[in-house]
Give the backbone structure.
Amino acid sequence: MIIELRIFNFDVKEEQNLKKESEQLNFLNRKTKEIINKKEIDPLLKGTSRSDEEPYKNLDLQCSPENILILDTETTGLDNQNDHCLEVGSILFNVKSRSVLAQQSFLLPVEKNNAEKINNIPAEITRLPQPIFEAIDYFKSLVQVSDVIVAHNAEFDMKWFGINKLPQIEKQWICSMDDMTWPDDRQLKSRPSVRDLALAYGVPVWNAHRALTDCIYLAEVFKRCGELEQLLIKALEPKVLLRAEVSYEQRHLAKNAGFRWNDVIKGAWSRKMSRKDMEKLEFPVYEVDFNN
């Protein structure tokens, strides 16, 4: 009787797992069909350029996105012209229910990994057999059913798409480091790291610099964030590029406001910011053309 009971329990659990997987696949298929009907698939995979002045035609800026795709990459270096992306991690996250709907991680084959000491991914591991094309197709389906892409330091992650094997993505990106203004009671820096953000929300940090792990940290933060909808709506506000007019003695004002030295504008403190937030700054700034 004990053996029969254990077999019965195993069958029940197996049936429950299959049912859950089936429900997830049905959800993805249903959402994909909806997008096809709206003729939104074609422009999805055209380009990764992030022009913050362009109107967000497919988004209602008064409403929070329904599904977001949390995304992270691991690379062999910093230069997308000479280095390569060797890992992609993503989590499809439903904002209203604060739930993970699907998650994925896959490796891309590389000959060498100059950043192995950082991400702990040996190059030879990336060349082991795996269903890489099926993985990329599934990744595309996750992009299709998402409303926006969320990444920590999005400017870095987005530049790896549209080259080599990775598809181009044309959806609005949100940077959880630069675009999202986290509540003051979390006592975070203006540009917090994933680690600091996770710890501020009570999320245990057990590993860093693997793509899916960093996505999990963000998903867990979002689950605990009561103001998530408001933060996402605010993050989607159009941004302008600002240059801070501060003296050397006042440089701490720009730094504390999230401006970076010698970054977008060489020899100056700069950052992208909405005009609403610009009005709250305690030092003078002026707008700079994105194309200059």
Notes: Residues 43-235 form a domain with the Nucleotidyltransferase; domain 5 fold (CATH 3.30.420.10). Residues 1-14, 38-56 have pLDDT under 50 and may be disordered. The chain has ten helices and nine strands. The first strand starts at residue 67 and ends at 75.
